[in-house]
Amino acid sequence: MNKSSFLSVFLFLILAIPTDRVTAEESDYDPEARLKELGIELPAPPSPVANYVNGVRTGNLIFLAGKGPKRADGSEITGKLGAEISIETGYEGARLTAINQLAVLKAMLGDLSKVKRVVKVLGMVNSTPDFVEQPAVINGFSDLIVEVFGDRGRHARAAVGMASLPRGQSVEIEMIVEVEPE
Fold it and tell me: Model pTM?
């Protein structure tokens, strides 16, 4: 076979490969069904507590304002890590915050399957100066996001300590998400 024939066969094979293949994970991608499997019902999105909005969309990115661990009854997980509350309680607060952020995202998008990628998470932990386990606390948020979105939920992240947070809440977390075009 000469070079020209080889090139023609090679190009034919490349062009014949379907480009609309979907991996098994992508064909099973249904974050809302995953929430049901996990026994999670999204609450009404928490209202902003000051002069801001829950999220801003620009292009295919949504920037979600910081949310905290507010329960459906309006109570919050409060306290300072390294003093009043344990890492486990902080983890629970971060997980609850993830549920609240998902509620905001669902309200903005109508359908969580429009999420292409969770890009960045900023986790702030109300902690004493000597507390250094902020990543273990914010894992409560990250673990749930990956459980819901799979690989699309794997994100860049910062987990930092704060001297205080609004209303004494244990954590506050922001998120940046890439979504399908409108």
Answer: 0.85
Q: What is the DSSP letter of 52?
A: S
Going by the DSSP 8-state scheme, the letter that residue 50 receives in this structure is S
Beta bridge partners of 169: 78
CATH number at residue 93: 3.30.1330.40
Where does residue 118 fall: left (phi above 0), alpha (psi -120 to 50 degrees), or beta otherwise?
beta
The CA distance from 101 to 173, in Å, is 8
40 occurs within a structural domain: no
Residue 22 confidence (pLDDT): 39
Q: Which two tokens stand for residue 72?
A: 């459906």
Is residue 23 domain-resident?
no
Q: Which phi-psi region, left, alpha or beta, contains residue 134 (left: φ > 0; alpha: ψ -120 to 50)?
A: alpha
The DSSP symbol for 48 reads P
Residue 4, pLDDT score: 55
Domain that holds residue 158: 48-179
- If phi > 0 it is left, if psi is from -120 to 50 it is alpha, else beta; for residue 163 that is alpha
Looking at the structure of the chain, the number of domains it has is: 1
Residue 151 forms part of a structural domain: yes
- Let me know if residue 79 belongs to a domain: yes
